[in-house]
Amino acid sequence: MIGKPPIDYSTLPDGDIACFDIKSFYASIEAIARGFDPFETAIAVVGNQDQQGSVILAASPYMKAKFNLGTGNRLYEIPDIPEILLVEPRMELYMNRALQIIDIYTSYVHPDDIFVYSVDESWLDLTSTKVRYNGTKNMVTKIKNEINNKHGLACSVGVGPNMFLSKVAMDVEGKKTGYARWGYDDIKDKLWPLEVSKVWGIGSRTAAKFNKWGIYTMGDVASRSLEFFKKRLGIVGVEIYRQAWGIDDSRPGGFYDDKRKSIGRGATLYRDYQKFEEIKTVIFNLSEDIGYRARELGLAGRTVSLYIRYSQEFYKKGFQGQQTLESATNLEHEIMRAALELLEKKYQAGSPIRRISLSLSNLLGEENVQLSLFQDKEKKMNLARARDQIRNEFGPEKLDYGLSQADGSIRERLNSNIGGHKKK
């Protein structure tokens, strides 16, 4: 039996948070670029068509509906028929389109009222601006229409008093109807019947634990006590329990939230890397890329994270670690130095490495970096910006550090790919 809510809902924020999701983003862009309607065309975006085991990165709505194939399926599962169009990913095109859509969002709400969750999904806080557009639904419709008119893309939208309810409303109802609005009054009838495994934020392992405890739905979660989840899952359990009651204190907090966002880059290597100097070169290549992107975004970060995956044949899987710096940075040499310190602590010399990933987090605006505490940091940052200008004007290969092209370098691959796929 479910008792009373753990909080008086009248004391909670009751704004209008909208979760926008662009339908079949990559595949829809590819269909439209070829003059096709993504709702009437079977199109799949596949990274490497030379390998039958390649994963489908995206599929058009028609492809999903007619062939029951979508993201995560394999190339060998796709029927070899003329009706299905296979295309390679063009990541630069997708990133540019995502930025154009964000530009549309910022024409309706302040950037501080937007949280970009991924290339195709964002939250917008419409609370303070909906009155200009004669209410929330009219405002959402206007934004959706502008995205469709300018780019041919369709959106699913969920609206709720907080980020969690708007996201679940979009996932469960909005993807079917185009628009859904859930409030605190809908928790009992709409949220509680949902299986925990189908709810955003609850992973498969956590759902499996819940099932072992006799918990299958969000209503089952709400029927237990807060202490039950706190004792077994700690802060994660507390959050899920609160969400079962529709409670979520988070809100869209601007394009870059230092608690949630990071700038990262990784690479799967074409062969095993075992020599320290070659590994160092790859780490520097990744550091260069991250530093450059951070400066372009006007950001700096305090925490450097390194992830190493060994070759499949090796008896160990790999390791990861992170280091928090005294001052935020966006300089490649400082990022590399922190990563190498992590490598030296954890790497067993001679172990075969097959993937290296690096990220910079705990982000803040570049203008907030305390340069006065460090004698030459401002000079180094100015030099880095000057170097960036040369790269942007003449190409990244025109001004390289010697280490960029040392043995084992993957610099050329990084310059020509985004997210492991070709830019164009």
Automatic annotation (TrEMBL):
Q: Which Pfam families match?
A: IMS, IMS_C, IMS_HHH
Source superkingdom? Bacteria
| One of the GO biological process terms | error-prone translesion synthesis
Residues forming the UmuC domain are 17-203
GO terms for cellular component: cytosol
Q: Where is the signal peptide?
A: none
Whether Translocase counts among this entry's keywords is no
Give GO terms: molecular function aspect only: damaged DNA binding; DNA-directed DNA polymerase activity
What SUPFAM superfamilies does the annotation carry?
DNA/RNA polymerases (SSF56672), Lesion bypass DNA polymerase (Y-family), little finger domain (SSF100879)
- What InterPro entries does the record tag this protein with? DNA/RNA_pol_sf (IPR043502), DNA_pol_Y-fam_lit_finger_sf (IPR036775), DNA_pol_Y-fam_little_finger (IPR017961), DNA_polymerase-Y (IPR050116), PolY_HhH_motif (IPR024728), Rev_trsase/Diguanyl_cyclase (IPR043128), UmuC (IPR001126)
What family is this?
Answer: Belongs to the DNA polymerase type-Y family.
Under the heading PANTHER family, the entry gives: DNA REPAIR POLYMERASE UMUC / TRANSFERASE FAMILY MEMBER (PTHR11076), DNA REPAIR PROTEIN HOMOLOG YOBH (PTHR11076:SF35)
Q: What name does the UniProt record give this protein?
A: UV damage repair protein UvrX
Q: Which organism is it from?
A: Halonatronomonas betaini
